[in-house]
Amino acid sequence: MSAAGMSGSGAQRRETETRCYVFLLAPQFSMIAFAAAIEPLRLANRLSGARLYAWRLACEGGGEAICSNGALVRVDAGLDPVAREATIVVCGGLDVHHAATPAVLGWLRRQARMGAHLGAVCTGAHVLARAGLLDGRRCTIHWENRAAFAEDFPDIAVTGRVFEIDGDRMTCAGGAAAADMMLAVIAHDHGPALARRVADQMIMAPLRSEADEQRLSAPARIGARNPRLSAIIDRMEANLEDPVSPPDLARDAGMSVRQLERLFRRYLNRSPKRHYMALRLEKARTLLLQTSMSVIDVAMASGFTSPSHFSKCYRAQFGRTPYRERGEPDSRERG
């Protein structure tokens, strides 16, 4: 479903009708994602000469919220009731699991029952999912958190897109993607011309849609434009839990194992096996830092069948064991 699901009459909305937003600031929220979400609303008001949007800031306990860069933001309220059909936007950031407190989850569920629309920027989708408010909906989250999100909520359809709007739920990847999402909402509410004027004020071009993906393409990420190499790396990234052997990668790419080795050496100065291992270990590190999964489960989710082999490879890559990564005693010390 497109942005049309977010509000009733779309571009036919009367210019004098004010749509209300409540930005729930989680501890360690991302300043750039929050600013990118709220500034398009301010500019829409300024450029239209009307109060199209109103907003207030909230956090659990009220007072002040601290963002990931250390800045303090004064909020307007705590977990107070919101107006019917207001839109609550959960602004996430670092360590978002700490934001999913019983008080916050209960508050979100109550407001949803009362008719509030719900959104999230950056990692805020984790909080909505924990509250059971993304069940049966499409959503997205910052690419760095996607693997952990998929492990925590295997039944929720999470995409790699810049933003997703599904009925009265909207989520975005964070960073500049928050502006893309809000520009889509403004275009729906008051027409694409106003959204383009807001984008011009923000020096944003071109506008991205729900169809756009968050991450750069494989060629852009690796700095090499070789279609066969890109296809092989895409397949590696799609099969981290159940790695594909080099002979199978080579065969399916229509080349020999020796040609596969030369291709990786030429463009990446490393073997296919080493590159694949690095991808799997990066996933493992993300899961260790962003989930409560056991080290053994993390190893299996990253394609390792032996915990000892996983620990050895992890230490060789990052200089510490998986247990030390979490600040826990090493398994040998715990024994």
Structure description:
With 335 residues, the chain is α/β, with parallel strands linked by helices. It folds into two domains: 3-201, Rossmann fold (3-Layer(aba) Sandwich); 218-334, Homeodomain-like (Arc Repressor Mutant, subunit A), CATH 1.10.10. It has helices at residues 31-48, 102-113, 124-130, 143-152, 177-190, 192-201, 218-222, 227-238, 246-252, 257-268, 272-290, 295-301, 307-318, 322-325, 331-334, and strands at residues 19-25, 53-58, 64-66, 72-74, 87-91, 117-121, 138-140, 157-159, 163-166, 169-172. A six-stranded mixed sheet has the order 2-1-5-6-10-9, sandwiched between helices. Helix 1 runs parallel beside helix 5 (177-190) and helix 4 packs across helix 11. Mean pLDDT is 88; it is low at 1-5.
Topology diagram in text:
Elements lengths: L18 E7 L5 H18 L4 E6 L5 E3 L5 E3 L12 E5 L10 H12 L3 E5 L2 H7 L7 E3 L2 H10 L4 E3 L3 E4 L2 E4 L4 H14 L1 H10 L16 H5 L4 H12 L7 H7 L4 H12 L3 H19 L4 H7 L5 H12 L3 H4 L5 H4 L1
Parallel strand pairs: 1-2, 1-5, 5-6, 6-10, 7-8
Antiparallel strand pairs: 3-4, 9-10
Short structural summary:
The chain is an alpha/beta fold. Helix content is 46%, strand content 13%.
Level-2 CATH architecture of the largest domain: 3-Layer(aba) Sandwich
Beta content = 5-15%
The CATH superfamily of the largest domain is known as Class I glutamine amidotransferase (GATase) domain
> Which structural category fits the helices and strands?
alpha/beta
Major sheet strand order: 2-1-5-6-10-9
Low-confidence stretches: 1-5
* Radius of gyration, taken over Cα atoms and rounded to an integer in Å: 22 Å
The main pleated sheet reads as: 6 strands, mixed
Number of domains: 2
Percent helix: 40-55%
Number of strands: 10
CATH fold type of the largest domain: Rossmann fold
| Overall geometric form | globular
Q: Could you tell me the mean pLDDT?
A: 88
State the CATH class of the largest domain.
Answer: Alpha Beta
How many H/I helical runs?
Answer: 15
Order of helices and strands: EHEEEEHEHEHEEEHHHHHHHHHHH
Ends: how far apart? 53 Å
